[in-house]
Inverse folding.
């Protein structure tokens, strides 16, 4: 068994094109998903039961189904609603809806972790609910938002691989094409995997830096070494 | 155009049966993943730099790549090493391996949040390391990590539908087959979604019940 490097060198254009599509789809979906997640979170926190219930139904549906099933529902369902979209648009819509369910939980948690007194004070000095949310609560949610949103974004980036099932030309799909040409699955999928690995770790490193520069109130490292550390401490 | 209710209803019984294989695959996978995850966690407490370096790289690789690619690697890639696996075996291996990594990370977080008191007491009493693991640390740890483990179970059930792409006959593939013969692709997929929803909803709700049961025993 030898690793055939020509499989990669001969098809690098396809891999590069796939990587570009993957990044495009992931980036667009993250933005759209977040735009959906904020109103969903506000609905889930609303005092009106109808809003709360509809948010709950949406969340339960999308969180209990695999992404590939949701993708197929959109893929076959949208044309039935007389919406003929290119596959990539269908994929972005499906991924955004899917991820918005997870993101809205994060947003909801972040809003709840801002002390209620902040909103009460904003209302007391005459701000509207929306202005209080936007000017007082939202800025304070940022530090609770960034770490979990990074994780969800990475999951979304990985989830884009499923779009190959509806022939969106992202990395996995290009990998399958190259595999069909070269019959070298090991080389192809290892390369694909490494491309994803590169993207996810680059993104994680980037967000890690943003988090560190944003977060000045880091908890001091624990200096006391416990006897139990040999059981409880595992380096990441 | 509207939906054909009879196609949806006719598909349900076959899909319910097919979902049984999803559950079976998920069950086997989580069993291996639990064993593997525990073993790997123990291995990670061994403070030997080269070993933890290698484990760290494997964890980073699995967490940083899509499970679909990992499934492809196991199914299409392993034959290169002269390991030829049936689709279902390759699928179970891929999911179990992926989940092992996520479970060891869950356990790492669980360990980090644990009260050192009982363990210090056990050390002070002179208990052997192995006994401390099996009788003090692990029992508390499993109770602590139960909620994320239940979540991991739903993740695994969802991942089993990806095996349809490597020709494992499970609920999604069955739905596609029904769709092909009925010339109506959407209804069987919706029926499959309904079945999967029930399965995952039950698991997560059941998990919450067990969680409340154990809440007072939380370490």
């Amino acid at each position: 068994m030898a690793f055939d490097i020509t499989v990669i060198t001969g098809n690098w254009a396809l891999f590069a094109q796939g990587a570009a599509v993957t990044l495009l789809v992931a980036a667009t979906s993250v933005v759209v998903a977040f735009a959906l997640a904020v109103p969903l979170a506000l609905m889930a926190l609303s005092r009106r039961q109808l809003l709360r219930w509809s948010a709950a139904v949406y969340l339960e549906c999308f969180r209990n189904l695999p992404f590939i099933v949701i993708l197929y529902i959109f893929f076959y369902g949208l044309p039935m609603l007389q919406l003929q979209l290119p596959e990539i648009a269908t994929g972005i819509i499906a991924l955004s809806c899917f991820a918005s369910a997870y993101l809205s939980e994060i947003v909801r948690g972040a809003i709840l972790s801002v002390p209620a007194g902040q909103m009460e004070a904003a209302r007391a000095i005459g701000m509207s609910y929306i202005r209080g949310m936007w000017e007082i609560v939202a800025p304070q949610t940022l530090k609770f938002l960034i770490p979990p949103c990074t994780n969800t974004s990475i999951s979304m980036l990985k989830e884009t691989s499923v779009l190959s099932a509806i022939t969106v030309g992202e990395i996995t799909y290009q990998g399958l094409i190259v595999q069909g040409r070269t019959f070298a699955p090991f080389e192809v999928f290892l390369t694909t995997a490494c491309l994803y690995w590169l993207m996810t770790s680059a993104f994680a490193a980037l967000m890690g830096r943003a988090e560190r520069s944003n977060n000045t109130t880091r908890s001091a490292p624990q200096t006391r070494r416990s006897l139990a550390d040999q059981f409880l401490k595992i380096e990441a | 155009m509207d939906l054909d209710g009879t196609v949806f209803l006719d598909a349900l019984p076959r899909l319910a049966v097919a979902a049984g294989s999803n559950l079976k695959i998920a069950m086997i996978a989580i069993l291996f993943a639990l064993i593997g995850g525990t073993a790997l966690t123990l291995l990670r407490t061994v403070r030997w730099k080269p070993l933890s370096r290698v484990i760290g790289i494997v964890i980073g690789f699995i967490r940083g790549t899509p499970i679909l690619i990992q499934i492809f690697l196991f199914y299409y890639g392993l034959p290169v090493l002269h390991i030829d696996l049936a689709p279902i075996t390759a699928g179970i291996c891929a999911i179990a391996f992926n989940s092992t990594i996520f479970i060891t990370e869950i356990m790492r977080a669980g360990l980090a949040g644990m009260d050192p008191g009982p363990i210090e007491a056990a050390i002070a009493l002179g208990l052997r390391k192995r006994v401390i693991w099996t009788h003090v640390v692990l029992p508390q740890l499993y109770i602590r990590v139960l909620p994320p483990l239940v979540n991991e179970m739903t993740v695994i059930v969802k991942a089993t539908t990806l095996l349809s792409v490597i020709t494992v006959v499970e609920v999604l593939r069955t739905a596609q087959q029904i769709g092909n013969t009925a010339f109506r692709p959407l209804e069987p997929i919706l029926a499959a979604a309904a079945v999967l929803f029930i399965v995952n909803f039950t698991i997560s709700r059941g998990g919450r019940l067990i969680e409340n049961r154990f809440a007072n025993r939380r370490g």
